[in-house]
Amino acid sequence: MSESASAASPADKKRGFFGRIALFIRQVIDELRKVVWPTGNELWTYFLVVVFFILAIMVFTGVLDYAFNRAVMWIFT
Question: Where are the domains of the chain?
């Protein structure tokens, strides 16, 4: 066990239930401040990339479905 982990343990044990919740919320807020949020232009670009990728997957799946349907109909009829 590292020294920093053992040093933090007694302080954490002294915190009550609500103190630990408050510490967690403060830590979440501190981490959210570190986030690099995308600009509006970047967000729009990401949105379009996702939409076109989903459309491409839909078309690919539809083509495969049609091909397998034709193959099954050809084999069994």
Answer: 1-35, 38-77
